[in-house]
Amino acid sequence: MDYVKAFVVGGLICVVIQILMDNTKLMPGRIMVLLVVVGSILGAVGVYQPFADWAGAGATVPLLGFGNSLWKGVWKSIGEDGFIGIFKGGFTASSVGISGALIFGYLGSVIFKPRMKS
Fold first, then answer.
1. Is 92 exposed, middle or buried (0-12, 13-18, 19+ CB in 10 A)?
2. Quick one: how far is CA 115 from the chain centroid?
3. Which of 37, 85, 98, 112 has the fewest beta carbons closer than 10 A?
């Protein structure tokens, strides 16, 4: 049942984003930033974590979950390091995910040898 919940929630998030892309003039980069910011705000308000606990990977894998994890890292680091935690916390919380994306992206480019379209 957890897989079904994650699939449905992740799918609904994607549907909302697709509607945004089809019916507004927002570019994909701005929509991505919007998702991260909304995830951070929902995490700060305290709404996102209960939702993520219920929805599982359907809520934590999309960019909303990335924004929430950034917020949690900043909040934790502010408690430990004070003002400097604002700058340090997001990097600490997201470093593993970003490193994984870079490493696997590089490995994919080595294996599949991408080339420019002509």
1. middle
2. 28
3. 112
